[in-house]
# Entry
Amino acid sequence: MLKLKVCGMRLAANIAAVAELQPDYLGFIFYKKSPRLISDVSAELIKYIPAEIKTVGVFVNEDIEKVKEKINTLKLKAVQLHGGESPEYCEALKFSFPGVEVIKAFGIDEDFDFPALEAYLGTTDYFLFDTKTKEHGGSGKIFNWSVLDRFTYAKPYFLSGGIGLEHTTAIKCIKDDRLYALDINSRFETEPGLKDAEKIKEFIKEMKK
# Structure
């Protein structure tokens, strides 16, 4: 069974409702330009999310000391780096926080340079493949998954980018042992950062069939 990450949570009651569905990961965005930016008040709730759910801080080209501060204060279990962070940046976080997962996101299009990922193989736990956009994700647009046929490394990855209820059948047809988790976001919202818990529940049900 694939793992599930619900990303872009920002409102207290909604965080609680989605946490009740027991996704494997809950993602919280700390990128100031995102409409899903979590407030400092709501972020304080991250520490109280059930331990079996891995809490993920999503950052875009953030000062590494600020990322370290969020890991420490909010007890994050993973960080997702969604900008142009270098392999050295990733390695520094892995060295500083051995128990915290480092997920490096990449925006994918038809011309993506997969050999460029080699430098990140030893400095990350997972890759995340999202649709390439100027906004660093959350576009609701899907990319051509067949492009991943050119991904030749033995690295587990999250599949992201416009995944919705209508994609469950196609996802089940993917035969790739490296596909570790699905990352859902905007296609399960009623507004940016507000998730439809019933729709997520339906997605989970369909994926288990």
